[in-house]
Amino acid sequence: MTEVPFVDLAAAHAEVERQVRAGFDRVMAKGAFVQGPDVAGFEREYAHFSGAAHCVGLGNGTDALELALRALFHERGAQERGGGDGPDVVLPANTFIATAEAVVRAGARPVLVDVDPDDLLIDQDLAAAATGPSTGAIIPVHLYGRLAHMDRLLRLGPPVLEDAAQSQGAVRDGQGLAGAIAATSFYPGKNLGAYGDAGAVITGSDELARTVRLMRDHGSERKYHHEIVGFNSRLDTLQAVVLRAKLRRLDGWNEQRRVAAARYAELLAGIPGLVPPSAAGGEHVWHLYVIRVPRRDEVAERLGEMGVRVGIHYPVPVHLQPAFRHLGHGPGDFPVAEAAAGQILSLPMFPQITEEQQQKVADALWKILG
Ligand SMILES: Cc1ncc(COP(=O)(O)O)c(C=O)c1O
């Protein structure tokens, strides 16, 4: 039985292998493993791709969120005091745990809000209601490859930090990233994935970019001179080589994902009980193709038995995670996120997925639910 993988990183590697190997050889010949022209080149190219003035390469996406928040607080003179007595940060309950972790790590207090039942992204009205004088930032999370509605968030006052880990290249109403700063992750399975951990912040602000640059390298712009207490979270040079090679293909790969999403929409139409992802949302980049089904765990198990690899993003919302027990929430606090967590199922999705593979996924779902 040939399985349908959830993602196929080897297929992506095959397309860039020649450039990546040549780039690795170049770096190794020089022995220049930290920073250097490939990091600067990638930052320039990704800033351009994002339509922003600055990209600062970092060690991973979680650090990117934390450093972006710290830079925002630094700018406002509200430097974290530690112990969680910093500003409040509004974020959705339906996200990967890193979004909430970064808030705590930056010394701030997560203020969770429920999500929109249609797209499962932050509910703007609830975010507005949760925003007040103690709010230091708002973090919409562009989950699954779709930009969250931002128009109202941008008018609320506090700076908006976009969690763009899953939305590389996405656009809504002709607009890409629109907040004060955005953080992204180049974890291997992302639309733009490295061969290990990597991340970046993107911003139009010279000041925020400078602060993040300082923070990623021990608070230093000049060797052995340290302006602030920083971190070591530089983008690895070999990862920059991979990212440069892949970035040239990203628009094409995102288009292939759109074609695959349209094909799923046709193949899955009419399956009893199956709710496909909502169609609205501009230029979605389909990092994940998330359907909702009844008896989700049973469906996932049967798909596995039939050779279809699936994922769940994410099975437990932030407020029900033991790590965030201290926020004092319980079941029922964010009903939309909680209901979704029990129904969502991510189907195999990657640029090189074939019609035959998608047909196999659809046939299996028809067999289980039809
Ligand atoms: C929505 C979201 N935020 C943050 C992150 C954290 O990124 P990283 O794994 O690179 O630390 C990820 C990816 O893992 C993510 O999907």
Would you write up a description of this structure?
This protein has a four-stranded mixed beta sheet. The chain has two domains: 9-243, Type I PLP-dependent aspartate aminotransferase-like (Major domain) (Aspartate Aminotransferase, domain 2, 3-Layer(aba) Sandwich); 250-369, Aspartate Aminotransferase, domain 1, CATH 3.90.1150.10. Helix 1 (9-30) packs antiparallel against helix 8 and helix 2 packs parallel to helix 8. The chain is α/β, with parallel strands linked by helices. 40% of the residues lie in helices and 12% in strands. The structure holds pyridoxal-5'-phosphate. Pyridoxal-5'-phosphate binds at residues 60-62, 95-96, 98-99, 141, 143, 163, 165-166, 185, 187, 197, 199.
Q: CATH class of the largest domain, anyone?
A: Alpha Beta
Mean pLDDT: 95
Give the CATH architecture of the largest domain: 3-Layer(aba) Sandwich
End-to-end Cα distance, whole Å, is 22 Å
Question: Strand count, sense and closure of the main sheet?
Answer: 4 strands, mixed
List the helices and strands and how they pair.
Elements: H1 9-30, H2 37-50, E1 54-58, H3 61-75, E2 88-92, H4 97-105, E3 109-113, H5 124-130, E4 135-138, H6 151-155, E5 161-163, E6 181-185, E7 199-203, H7 206-216, E8 220-222, E9 225-226, H8 237-268, E10 289-292, H9 296-305, H10 335-341, E11 344-347, H11 355-369
Parallel strand pairs: 2-3, 2-4, 5-6
Antiparallel strand pairs: 1-7, 6-7, 8-9, 10-11
The chain binds pyridoxal-5'-phosphate.
Pyridoxal-5'-phosphate binds at residues 60-62, 95-96, 98-99, 141, 143, 163, 165-166, 185, 187, 197, 199.
